[in-house]
Amino acid sequence: MKNHSDIAIIGCGPGGAVAGALLAARGYSVSIFDRQQHPRHHIGESLLPASMSILQSIGMDGAYMQAHHQGKFGARFFDPVAERLEVFGFALPTDATPPPTFNVIREIFDLQLRDIAQQRGCRIHENSAIVSLTEKQTPVQIQDRSGETHTCDFVIDATGQAAMMARKLGHQEMLPDFGRLAVYNYFSNIPAPESADPFERQYLTMHIIDGGWIWFIPLRDGSTSVGVVLKRAAVQKNLDLQQQFFAAIQQSPCLHRRLAQATVLAPYRAAGDYSYHCGQKFGPHHVLIGDAAGFLDPIFSSGVHLAISSAARAADAVDAVLQRGDQGALRQYQADMDAATRVFQAFVERFYQRDLIRNLFFSSDKNPVMRKAIISILAGYVWDLTNPLIQMLQSAVPKTIPDSDCVESAQCEKDESAASISPAAELTPTLATPYAGSR
Ligand SMILES: Cc1cc2nc3c(=O)[nH]c(=O)nc-3n(C[C@H](O)[C@H](O)[C@H](O)COP(=O)(O)OP(=O)(O)OC[C@H]3O[C@@H](n4cnc5c(N)ncnc54)[C@H](O)[C@@H]3O)c2cc1C
Description:
The chain is an alpha+beta fold. The chain is built from 13 helices and 21 strands. It has three domains: 4-62 and 104-175 and 275-337, FAD/NAD(P)-binding domain (3-Layer(bba) Sandwich), CATH 3.50.50.60; 72-102 and 179-272, D-Amino Acid Oxidase, Chain A, domain 2 (2-Layer Sandwich), CATH 3.30.9; 348-418, no CATH class. 34% of the residues lie in helices and 22% in strands. Strands 1, 2, 7, 8, 9, 10, 19 and 20 form an eight-stranded mixed sheet that branches. Strands 4, 5, 12, 13, 14, 15, 16 and 17 form an eight-stranded mixed sheet that branches. A three-stranded antiparallel sheet has the order 11-18-21, with no helix packed on it. A hairpin with a 2-residue loop joins β13 and β14 (212-218).
């Protein structure tokens, strides 16, 4: 039938492209629609090691990634007041080949993913904004802005922050207590830091400031992505984006001095009000993945990992529905994604309670077991129930995503016991449980 596919995917970001590549490889006819055309700008450059096995499964192995993207060996947290740098390494930058994960220029990375989906048989429709769909019965009807209609047996919503179906069905709940505004730009010719830091470009560095944080993400082309994320109270009214950016950067004086001498590469951009949860992630003929299913503050770089891993898990579930009518697979998918989100969400909440995160991340106490547990979460292994910190975070947060008051009291209690969590030597996260392709 003309314009009919087994599966239609709306959105060709990392979530949509990975889901498409995996389902096309299983023999399904897949159409992917995107309202934009690649290459297109997107924020979200820092990946996690836990995504690598999924990328490898669609042909982006370590060697491929190393040829195109900047190796990332861990996450560093810098406290500019105490001038203290805490390094959580996934591997030593001197000896890991390929690197455990990467910082990517999203224009390039997302284009590569689209090409892989296409090579695996997906039909890609760009400049095709989907404006309506009938998800309650099959065939599902999808209409784009030009009025063209497509049909499918199952639809995957991968529309990112547009969260098309969650908004349509009223399932989107905002999480107002996280970062409210991000302002960012790209810089080149950044002078070296005053204290020698030979491995700066091998890490993602977060500067912790009052009311928010700053990301410093070196990229393969020599540029660096720098962004500030501010809580609502820290956003200064009547400042333009550049002023807002530098007002925050000033809180990290060394970085401020360096950026003042660097070359600015783009207009300042902003993203706001981006943290939300979707309580219902599926229906009989549709499923939500990636940001379309929910998004947390980007402090722990969880976005692309959750997009890719939800795509892989949703591909299994959609396959089970189309092969066996197994709707339980969709329920399991939602339970899996909610479990992962709870871990990252509890971590983000701790981060925004500054004293607690200082206890947790900057503590001088040595507790190698807990340090290894932190690194494993920072690497994205959030389904590993042998991780003692995941057990603690899971029990600290109620099963449904709670309101902020409820979370704060739960976290306060738990963080008293977390005060002894502290750094140790660089570790490889052996607690890892890579996604195996099926449950
Ligand atoms: C300030 C900020 C910083 C971030 N930093 C990081 C980071 O360092 N690391 C990280 O992992 N994540 C980061 N993220 C999150 C990351 O950007 C997202 O989680 C990730 O891009 C989600 O992928 P996705 O495939 O779900 O959606 P997207 O990548 O957003 O793709 C969605 C696609 O859907 C298309 N679309 C939308 N509506 C329609 C429609 N109606 N019809 C057709 N197409 C449509 C869009 O054009 C888009 O191409 C950050 C986010 C923010 C806001």
